[in-house]
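LOG
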Amino acid sequence: MFGIGFQEMLVILVVVLIFFGPKRLPDLAKSLGKGIAEFKKASEEVRKGIDEAVRESDNEEPGTDPPAPGDVKGTDPPAPGDAKGTDPPPSAANESPPPPSAPKG
């Protein structure tokens, strides 16, 4: 428990007994127990809220997920023997501009 041994716990209890006195010690223990119980309840509520938020984010609308590869709107998947579907079409975006030092014209 928190790396505190029996001897350290005994010293702490003796100091608390001397500081607060035997008359206030039961009230102090009762208050400490209530505080710990409230803290556990609050932390459990926070944990449940976080778990619920994670579940909601996992179960979001399926339309917000990115499409799977090959699942593009308006295109049919290629036939198994179709060679056109294996290579991506050339794109102007993939071409790099000529270096600035190249002569123009």
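LOG (cont.) second protein
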Amino acid sequence: MAAGAVSCAAGRWILQKSMTNDPPSRSLLAAVAVLMSLACVLPGAQPAFAQQQTVTLTSSPAAMLAAAKSWGYQLQNVDPDTIAAASYDMLVIDYSRDGSQAQALGADEVAKLKRKPDGGRRIVLAYLSIGEAETYRYYWKWYWGRFFGGLAPDWRGRQNREWRGNYGVRYWDEGWQNIIFRGPDSYLDRIIKAGFDGVYLDKVDEYVDMTKQNPDARAAMIAFVRALAAHARERAPGFLIVPQNGEGLLTEAGYRAVIDGAGKEDLLFGEDKTGRPNDPESIRENVARLKLVTAERKPVFAVEYLDAPAEIERARRRLVGYGFIPYFADRALDQMRIGDLPDPSVKPGKK
């Protein structure tokens, strides 16, 4: 007999005994019976309690990620000592202090970031853009952006007007995939060797812009992420894959099956302009897609680029109400806020 069934049976026995005992004993036994019976008639309470898994230093990365209640996000001016002092359960950082290989974080520094100030374990993900090439990365050749693109590789697309130095890529191209994960000493392999728990994949939504060039751009992005995940987990079992944005891909069950969570920028504000409220219909559609992830007990990490305390408070309540984990930042992502509000003594950087 299951433990729950034993408790219920014992409760019924105690209740029967209370009916035949003297008043003092009857009152005590009846009280015990009522408490035990509540465990039987409220079945939802016991599973909910059981689902709150105790996360230990030996828990799987996926279990620790799913149990996260807070997170931080910084890509520029990465200082491991400063970031390590934050109490967040999950961190997203660049694998390098300045994006270059020369300033890449070492395994000892990543290991330090995996420990919270209270000694507990936390998840550390490396930012990895797979839909855009960045001119400050180790793989970029200086002449790829010169001579009107005449010497650029076939996979290089147009420059991002909002983020100078970032170029869209034809991510289905073998040359680009060799850089990211297939080739020897690839970008992904460097991240794995440094000891990161996983990757935070940016620009998976590049498929939207590439549809005109490739009618199968959406399917190609899904195939790209799945192949990257398989490669990573072959080398590091349990390696985490968390894509940012690209909510249109989340309706594909095969895509959701290989990711461990999702990130989302500008869910409530900033689709058209930083700080401007988004269209309510857009919010509803994106929330519905993101809830496909939380329905599978995987976390959604939402970042809003807000400064005003009142807006931040309202946004936090909404995001938590959706079941998402909020974080508030400057769009430059050059510092890690401790709490929701910006540090008044620090001037925001340029994106």
